[in-house]
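In keeping with the milestone schedule agreed at the kick-off meeting, the structural modelling team has produced records for the first pair of proteins. Each record is given below as a sequence line and a structure-token line. The laboratory manager (R.T.) confirmed that both were archived under the project's standard naming scheme.
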Amino acid sequence: MDTVWRQKQDPEGGFTAFDSPIRQKRLEKGLAQKEVASRVGITRQALHSIETGRYIPNTLVAIRLARALGSRVEEIFPCWEGIDLPLLSGPFPQVEGGRRLVLADVRGQLIPYPVERLEEGSGAFVAADALLAGDGQAGGRWTLLSSASAIQRSAFLLGCDPGIGLLVERIAAVSRDRLRWVPCASEKAAAALRAGQTHLAGCHLPGGEGRNNVALAREALQGVGGVLIRFARWEEGIAVAPGNPMGVRSAEDLANPGLRFLNREVGAGSRALLDDLLQKQGIPGSAIRGYETMARSPVSAARAVAGGAADAALTNRACAQAQGVEFIALGASEFDWIVPQDQVDHPTVALLLDLLSDSRMRAEFAVLPGYEVSRMGTVAARFERESAVR
């Protein structure tokens, strides 16, 4: 299915708002924006801006709005100071000792990630939303650094494509929305999405009839439905030192006993590609020195080779070239986004999806080494609860 993604229009005018507490309460009561605005004494446009987080009203308007919706002010304007941050279960069991956290609201729950995970991808310090006290474990005391509005307008995108860093900068340049990129493997990103710990997940499992992006998305979107959006196709392979001193030409050459190899973590698409190639050659992972040693991202893998910590590592062409090392191609993978249906109207997610049709952004990605973006923004599959329509 090659339908190009487009935002939906709200029947009341403009693009739909994400499910903020105000909008949820209004829809529960079956009230139109115009009716609520009239009760509060503001314009419909002002109410729309409040619902989408673009405008924070004064105290009097907030009280009137709460009364119009039959709610308390704190119910429709979240204030998270004093609550305990959750210990993440599933794919991210803890905050890993980090004291600086970034936060976002995912389906009404405040989700924390350690800033260090974001900094792995950007290579620069990232501003935190909160500081943990004591030993840096969630569930303890913490200090909020960002406004509730900023946190509500933040969205997490988990995945390992380093090109996401360009999207983070693009969004920051055109809006107050914040895209928070947490680098991680495809399987881990999808598991976090299914656990309600992210707004979007990126994946690039090898194609074919086995475990692929569509199968992964179907599992992650059970019970909520959504879409799988094509982003880019990029070359995956092996980074080696300049001049290729170990003579690596293919996956089977990694079994050289004198070669120090750096793998990707379990669940990464590039690791799945390598495993497929090794299986076809009848080579067990145990025959490769360093097979169990893992890099968290293609960026860190290429850096390890550039710094001499490994002779060969799994990465993509763009990362290898950026680090000044050589690249041995093993194949190409589709990097797709798994998008839950109930997240497409979140303001940051909506802006991100809209950027897929921006010709300037496509042009920038097209010049990245090994990237092919002719299908960017097309719908690879739609999911209605349990099933996919392709």
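The second protein of the pair:
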Amino acid sequence: MSTASPVPVDPEVTHDTGDPVGEVLVDWYAGAARDLPWREPGTDAWAVLVSEVMLQQTPVARVEPVWRAWLARWPAPADLAAATPAEVIRAWGKLGYPRRALRLREAAVAVTERHGGVVPAEVDELEALPGIGTYTARAVACFGYGRRQPVVDTNVRRVVARLVHGRAEAAPARTSDLVDIAALAPADDARAVRFSVAVMELGALVCVAGNPRCGACPVRDRCRWRLAGYPAHDGPPRRVQRFAGTDRQVRGRLLDVLRAAHEPVQPDALVAAWDDALQRSRCLDSLLVDGLVVQTDDGRFSLPD
């Protein structure tokens, strides 16, 4: 099925009320936003940074209790920098992708050593921190410091693909995504910051991947995908990530054993975690390479000190 032809972003795209789309979304967000702790007034840039790292590929419901516990234990970068890798991995718990925990600790060390313990506000300085990419750097500058920044995650790219370009799905990430979303932001800096989170919320709650709730969309009358008759996605099919039986699951099982142990464990203690010896060995090797597990001189295994 054919799709609508791409069109240039028009910053004056308006809703049927005559208001620019960005302004409409900010007003919509005022009544539709979820009550999330990292969005509360007064949340500092460190707390925002922790939330953004934890939220990568992880549902909000799983992140919130860990985020609260993490900030209670390590309220500033210097506190986390002083923690051992083992403490950090244990505190990360079941959030998944535990390398993020080590990278966040490395970022805390860098903030403490290079920036006097204060998370920097400039995007280039944020991007220079370990494990911090374009999205996270802009999110911290925007949500942690109130800087006018285009913040583009998967949800935002999908909103722009449909609203602006008339496509069912977003193309692979590209630099023009930042230009697209910046063109829709309100002129007022404070409202532009609210817009950055509002468009993310629209993609998370309404303009979702599977079954978008177009009837609840505040800008549905200006959505070029809707106006084109919802043309189907004509690119490669979206990959559905499975978890059961994957190396990710096995790595998690092995880490569970080591988190619960108070001293290094014998190799036999890991056998019960997964019965496929070849896959278990492969995953243990990958954990050693990633620095999430260490082996003692006598052949036992533990979390890193």
